[in-house]
Amino acid sequence: MANLECDVITPIDAVVSVAVAKGPDVIEESLEMSADGIPLQFDEIMDDHGTRLHVASNVPVGRFAIRYAATVGASGPVAEVQPIDLIRYLRPSRYCESDELSPVARAEFSGLHGADLLAAVSSWVGTRLGYVPGSSRQTDGAVATLLARQGVCRDFAHLVIAFLRACEVPARLASVYAPGLSPMDFHAVAEAHVDGSWQVVDATCLAPRATMIRIATGRDAADTAFLNTSHGVVNLTDISVIAYTDERLPLDDMNGLVELR
Asked: How far apart are CA 93 and CA 97, in angstroms?
C-alpha cells in the first residue's frame, strides 16, 4: 500500500510508478488519484519488464493525492532474460558511472565470478557505506556515493550496479515493496545477471529478498522513480508505504541467490 500527497503549485503532468509490476498473481488491487478530493482520470502505459506507469495529464493546482493498495499471491513468474538486456545493463548510466569506477572495481574484485562476486560486492558496499536517511541528493550517482561513504537504498544499489557492470556483469535497478523493511518506504535493490537469471543484490540487508515484490525496473533511479512530473511545479508533502506478508518473514542468507518476482 502506498499513499502520496503533493501540493501542485502550477498544473502538471504526472507519471506514477507505484503499482506492482505485471507478473505476480494480483488478487486485489486499487489505484486512485485525486485533486482536492475530486477523482482524476489516468491512463496505464506498459514499460519494460512489466513496469506499469499511470499517467495523469494536466493535474490542476491544489492537493494531489495518490492511493494504491494491492494483495499479491505467494507465487509468480521470475524475471525473463532478454538478449538486449545483457547489452543495455552493461553500459554506464546516469547514476551508475561504471566507466569511472572500473579501476576501483577491478582492484577490489579481481578474480571473482558468479555468486562469489555478488557476495563480495554486496559485502564491500554494505560495510563501507553508512545508511543515513536524507544524506544524499537526488542528483548523486555512484561516484558521489562512494566519496560520501553514506546514502540510502538507491545509493547502495547504484554503487553495487556500477561495480558489477565494471566487472562485466549486467546489472540493473528494481524498485520494490519490501515486507520487513524498517523504516518502511519504497525500497531499491540491484539485480545482477548470473548463471542465466537475474539475482537480487541488496547491500543494505534491511529486508529479506525472498518477499520483495517488483514495482519498476531500469538502468537506475532515473527509470524507476515513483513519481515524475513535467510542465509545472509540485512539492511532495507526505508519503507512506506499508508492505507486509501473512507468513513469517524468512531469514535471508546473503550469500545465497534469490530471484525477484
From this structure: 6
Burial 91-120 (b: 16+ CB within 10 A, else e): ebbebbbbeebbebbeebbeeeeeeebbbb
| Residue whose cell numbers read 565494471 | 166
Residue 6 three-state SS: strand
The answer to whether residue 80 is domain-embedded is: no
Please check whether residues 27 and 127 belong to one and the same domain: no
Please, where are the H alpha helices in the chain? 85-88, 102-109, 114-128, 142-148, 153-166
Contact between residue 207 and residue 181 where contact means Cβ atoms under 8 Å apart: yes
Say if residue 137 is in the same domain as residue 174: yes
The string of pLDDT tens digits covering residues 151-202 is: 999 999 999 999 999 999 999 999 999 999 998 999 999 999 999 999 999 9
Same domain (yes/no): 218, 91: yes
CA atoms of 97 and 118, how far apart (whole Å): 18
Residue 31 CB partners (closer than 8 Å, separation 6+): 18, 19, 42, 54, 66, 67, 68
Q: Are residues 218 and 154 in the same domain?
A: yes
In a domain, 261, yes or no: no
Q: Tell me the pLDDT tens digit for each residue of 77-134.
A: 666 789 999 999 999 999 999 999 999 999 999 999 999 999 999 999 999 999 999 9
Domain assignment of residue 168, yes or no: yes
**What span, in angstroms and rounded, lies between the C-alpha atoms of 129 and 125?**
6
Give the number of domains in the chain: 2
